[in-house]
Amino acid sequence: MGQLSTGALATINRVPFGCLVCKGEIFFDRKVKLNTTGAEFMNMGWMNQSATGLVCTRCGYVHLFLNDAIEYWRPESGYPSP
User: Fold this and answer.
1) Angle at 69 between CA 68 and CA 74, to 5 degrees
2) Within a domain: 2
3) Domain that holds residue 31
């Protein structure tokens, strides 16, 4: 997974995902660092876990996921058949 250059449909464990705020279906992805106060205080912020952020192209809300269950699909092709 890398940064999506164009928006994409997303599924979580093969279930179509929609924005929880506006019901949008097109997302960009980005890595999001989950900082903790303790690690930052000890100057060890590099040890913090990262999440995948799905950014809704319609409203900008960022949905965070910690696992690798996200798959991306071209909007013009639609979601995969079940």
Assistant:
1) 105
2) no
3) 9-73
